[in-house]
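Following the same procedure, sequence and fold were stored together, as reproduced here:

>
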Amino acid sequence: EVQLLAVSKKQDCLAIRMAFAAGQRQFGENYVQEALEKMAQLEDLDISWHLIGALQSNTTASNNAALGVSALLLNTTGTANTAVGTGALYSNTTASNNTAVGYQAGYSNTTGLITAFGYQAGYSNTTGNYNTALGSASLYTNSTGTQNTAIGWQSLNANSTGSYNTATGLN
């Protein structure tokens, strides 16, 4: 099935509402702040939003790379971050030098310094620093623990605040 993606950057909400009324459901933006404003103003519509092209913003953030729907979506001042996958580093606002690859990898990270590879790897990390999560759901519940290394499916999954741990394999 072929679907049309309407590029709505630089268009006002009235134009988007008119396109929606005509049947358009998929809209693309590449200015994060503009996208967030439109999402809030048009939340009553069942729109599927997409970030397209090079990530652009009018914040002070720089040297970031994002690929995937909502990857690095909330970043404002963080620099040198790489996010690949839907929701990767979604909540990152000010943290720098993070790498997350995979669906929702590093999703909750706000100020921590992490490397997360895999489906929801490092998902709950918020402020924990120098953590490495390799594998689906590895270091999933870690929030503030530091200098942890988890390799394997659900490795260190239950760790939330512990530090200086190394684990391979399940749990």
